[in-house]
Amino acid sequence: MDWEERVDADFWAAVEARQKGAPEEALALERRAEALLREHLTPELHGKLAGLLYGMAGTLLELGRADRAVGVLDEAERLYEGADGQDADRRAQLADVRVRRARAYGEVGRGLPALVDVDRAITEYARIGAMEAAGGPHALDVARVLALAAEVVLRYGDPQAALDGASQALARYGDAGRTTGIRPEDLFYALGAAFVSARVEAAAGEWDNAVMVDRWALSVVASQPQVRPAVLARLDVHLRAAGRAEEAASLRALTTLDPAAVAVEERLLAEGVPVTLRQALDEAAALDPTALAVAAGLRRDLLRMAPSTTGRAASVEHVRQLAALAAGMPGANPAAMRLALESYCILESLERNGRAEPPASLWSDVLRGALRVADAHGDSVLADDLRAAARDRGITLDPLPAAPAEPAPASAGPAPDPTAAPDPVQVPEVRSGARGLLGRFRRRTGS
């Protein structure tokens, strides 16, 4: 067996080790393959090393070593960017690297670069025309990227954009389910998209959509006993919250629910989801009636179905308006955080894609405003990333005054008893900005 055969053997042995739940063994094999490949590395083998590093980053994530995974994926990205190969294939590989790095950034609390990587990943597929095509060679690759991106965006970005991405992923998995079936390796991503979709729909009070997605998820986990309890618990919680007690009782009569899983789903429902861009614009207008026209224009221009920033088709003027609205709000207001992050992400997208050359003064305003909000929220990680972005552009951020204090909220009463019986589920406040966007999924899956 020559050295190339040994590299390949270790690579596939690592894949098998991950599949059997032995990530430490997989990492040891991947490191041995990496060392051997580096001994014989030539420019022609850069793509091979990049693929090995991509897999290693997945193992590191599984082991909870997200900070290490970021560095490994940085090198994989550089190698793919310089490797030979067909343009479409390289763009797809870069998309995979970036969405995995977005996940890694998210795991260490770095939401800003995570959102940028999500947009860069989806943009790569858009450039090869894979976003528009329902079928094609990259259909399930796009679905995977959209599903992973949706989880990151739900955590750090606009929940509506997360729902858009999850819905598009589910539509593609629905197509696969009716033809070739969902491959076992895709099931994890399909269930992730279903989780995002159902959670956002439930937070909006769109119970029919939430339950529909829950039932679809249940239909594809019949052979997955390790994830079935969570899906059953989510369906039960959503049925009870929707007032569909008889259906919930029937479900409980047919199966035994895991109390711990039910408790998790009840907590997630009570938490809701972060503020949407629509809600943030509504709140800005409510706080300052002179901003009504600006907020209305931004709603008209930006609130379109798009799973990432570039898809919003925004302009420099939109950035100025978002930043100005955020500046007029108390920094600790979650709506100010949404507006500030959107202004940064849009400006970065415009610059990266060559659609604008933003002046340094605008970058300074956006970064300074976002830093004020980060400081008001006590988010030191975000503040560090903003200062790093400023340094990269040669911008000095002067110390900012303390953000205006907001009145303390009225007491909500004693904390709920975690040992109390599960019924009834408290229905969260309906978020006026979120809407059910799963009609396309419903039509394409036949559900």
Care to describe what's here?
- Helices cover 68% and strands 0% of the residues.
- The protein has three domains: 1-132, Serine Threonine Protein Phosphatase 5, Tetratricopeptide repeat, CATH 1.25.40.10; 160-274, no CATH class; 277-392, no CATH class.
- It contains 20 helices and no strands.
- It has helices at residues 3-19, 23-39, 46-62, 66-82, 87-107, 111-127, 139-156, 159-178, 184-203, 207-220, 228-241, 245-254, 259-271, 277-287, 292-302, 316-327, 334-352, 360-377, 380-392, 439-445.
- It is globular, with a radius of gyration of 23 Å.
- The chain is mainly α and 447 residues long.
Helix content percent band: 55-70%
Q: In the residues, how many domains can be counted?
A: 3
Low-confidence stretches: 408-447
Oligomer: single chain
Query: How many separate helices?
Result: 20
Main structural class: mainly alpha
**What proportion of the residues form beta strands (DSSP E)?**
under 5%
Under the CATH scheme, the architecture of the largest domain is Alpha Horseshoe
Quote the average pLDDT. Answer: 86
Major sheet attributes: none
What is the CATH topology of the largest domain? Serine Threonine Protein Phosphatase 5, Tetratricopeptide repeat
- Beta-strand segment tally: 0
CATH superfamily of the largest domain: Tetratricopeptide repeat domain
Cα end-to-end separation: 52 Å
Q: How do the SSEs run, as a string of H and E?
A: HHHHHHHHHHHHHHHHHHHH
